[in-house]
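Figure 2 data, in text form.
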Amino acid sequence: MLLLFLPLLKDFLRNQSLVLLMQLHLGAVLGLFEDQRYKSESKKPAVRSIDIIGLGTGPDLEKKLKYAGDVSSGIIFGGELVNSPANVLTPGVLAEEASKVASTYSDVFTAKILDADQCKELKMGSYLGVAAASANPPRFIHLTYKPPSGSVKVKLALVGKGLTFDSGGYNIKTGPGCSIELMKFDMGGSAAILGAAKALGQIKPLGVEVHFIVAACENMISGTGMRPGDVVTASNGKTIEVNNTDAEGRLTLADALVYACNQGVEKIIDLATLTGACVVALGPSIAGVFSPNDELVKEVLEASEVSGEKLWRLPIEESYWESMKSGVADMVNTGGRPGGSITAALFLKQFVDEKVQWLHIDMAGPVWNDKKRSATGFGVFTLVEWVLKNSF
């Protein structure tokens, strides 16, 4: 009987060695990387090369090494976007960075960047309400990946929250622990999907079309800004009473999700540094996952097992929607402190077509490493793995 299992054992060990090689490669590249773009004196890493012994050679290993390199480049790109200060990375600059990805991999990518007037034509009142106070105009980003050859079997969308700075608006962030000085990382969701786009532009999976969507803007304070108590109308016609201007990310995602559904996609994942409540629930290292679709959750959790990024499924408790009802509009944008990450997910669900499978990742905790005072590039690896699992 042992002889019958030896080939299976050999394949298992071989596959494990390939996974180990990928992890070693990623660990070495990312462990040595340090973002020094904004320092007057930059240090070069002391390590010039690394030899990995005992894992053999061959085309499979070379393929895995290339894959690890492609993913690493996406993670570093995403991390650099998050690390960039808000006076450098405005919504316009984020759109330029997305366009650069598309032009670099123009054999598989196209880019469409919408300005405020074009978004107004699409009736994106929820998104534009958030952007109204900023001197830096909003930019709606849409990258489309199509395989270099063959037919498309499945259409996916990745939607990332793109607040390049979040002051909180008139509900300004104040007091200890508000982390207003770190609110450049409130575009971590958009950084993750653009990092994944960069990696996928190099990998070029077949059989899958992917739409990368970001409603980029700043949440600031001015005489033109959105006020608590205002009512805005999203592009699907639903009205929202804004009872808290610091719950702005979901307002931008509302119109981004409607737009994504209109692209004819079958599955959507959105990523957002959405709620402090999720950090309270899961701590700084684990992202919350919300979805009404068990199969999609399974796909994403399997992808995260390969990436090593920690995700935990939390419930979408429909009874909590009672706290989101408004007296003057279809809904309010916050439902209070209890279950804050759940009511946020319930809010997003109102803007997703029932025929589309949808999953929300609240990555407010793992987007940032407090010890290193730097972005983590969280989400890129899991997204790449998920797209590949859907390719044919």
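Caption note: The chain is about 40% helix and 20% strand.
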